Amino acid sequence: MKGDKNINSKSSIVKILIVIFIGIAVIFVVARYATDEEFRYTVDTNILKKEVSELNLNTIEIDSDTNPSIFAYDKYITVLSKNVLSEYTSDGKLASELDVNISVPLVETNGKYMILAEKDGQKMYLISGTNILWEATVDGSISRVNVNRNGYVSVIVKNTIYKSVVLYYDLSGKEIFRKYLSTNYAICTAISTNNKYLAIGEIDYSGTIIKSYVSIISADLAQTDSLNSVVYTYEAENGEIITNINYQDKTTAVCMFNNYIQKVTTNSNERLYDITNKDVFVDISLKDGIAIIDKQSSGLFSYEYEVDIKSINSKSESLYILNSDLPKAMSVSANIMALNLGNEVQIINSKGWLLKKYTSSKQIDKIVLGDSIAGVVYKNKIEIIDL
């Protein structure tokens, strides 16, 4: 009996040592993967098989003569042509065909929702999955649209007796309120993740110096006390032009101007980033953070490019080194970024880790990106990357 106990004891010690050894090995591999660029590239290419090409992907054929407009959202690639919006799944199969009275589209997507409107027109549609949830017609001309991840929609309308009118709709298509701007022009809008606040980026061109503002509107107050519905106003520096706003939580609106990025809440504001001449692309569309592609000198007349991803809430920072020529474009959806490098696409997440790498023998025209799908667009086809 005593011998059996000794054997069992030794066996248990061996098992514990094996578990400890495996744990240390896993920690070592993960740490090296996170910090060693060459090791990570080897693992991504040879073990995780993250590299794909035009030879092994599903394809959607398109007719370039009809000048189609191509977008992605959620898990669909969409093709708009001749007032029909065709939706395709990751296997390249047609999921739906929706009749929409749209010729020149304005499109914004967020999660499983797409708002589709006629640019400088009056018609708009909210789409989710393979269905049109609602459609509406406005007075005036639509200049910009926005949708949050709950399907709430804001629309900027021009060519009325006001400089701008901003409309706010719930998921059912009911107009909750509208905001009339008599002195400033509305440039962009964003809706908080809990639907309680609407941020409006405004510009006043009337003076000798251009002035930009961000107004935070309480949706509750706008329905009961419209005159006092603005709960906070941020005034930008002189000459700054606001270009975009993105709500990243219930109260934090990230606002991009030509030279800096500012965080604006219901009661405060904070400088997040000063844009420099080294920054090639800057995007505030991430769910939690901003993405910056900048160039770094790597020699007397040479540069390398990197993606710097800065979290707004945790203040953490991730870096992804491109080691390539100047990127042509960057697309963002949720916490995923697609980088168009000409004959190559690299898709990364907000942690700075590669998800997929696509290589091509031809120049890539455009990348469209949804939360779980990407489309590589050529003149006569779309290659589908399933994420």
> Which regions are unreliable across 5 or more consecutive residues at pLDDT < 50?
none
Number of helices: 3
Secondary-structure-based class equals: mainly beta
Number of strands: 33
Oligomer: single chain
The proportion of residues forming helix, as a percent range, comes to: 10-25%
Calculate the terminal CA-CA distance, rounded to whole Å.
57 Å
Give the spatial strand order of the biggest sheet: 1-30-29-28-27
Strand percent estimate: over 45%
Q: If you average the pLDDT, what whole number results?
A: 90
| Biggest sheet features | 5 strands, mixed
The radius of gyration is: 25 Å
Principal-axis shape: globular
Can you walk me through this structure?
There is one protein chain. The chain is mainly beta. The chain has 3 helices and 33 strands. The chain has helices spanning 2-35, 37-47, 219-224, and strands at 51-53, 59-61, 69-73, 76-81, 84-88, 94-99, 105-110, 113-118, 123-128, 131-137, 141-147, 153-158, 164-169, 175-181, 185-191, 197-204, 211-218, 230-235, 242-247, 253-257, 260-264, 269-274, 279-283, 290-297, 303-310, 317-321, 329-333, 336-340, 344-349, 354-359, 366-369, 373-377, 381-386. The strands form 8 sheets. The chain has a 5-stranded mixed beta sheet with strand order 1-30-29-28-27, with no helix packed on it. A 4-stranded antiparallel beta sheet has the order 2-33-32-31, with no helix packed on it. A hairpin with a 5-residue loop joins strand 11 (141-147) and strand 12 (153-158). Helix 1 packs across helix 2. The longest helix has 34 residues, at 2-35. The chain is globular.
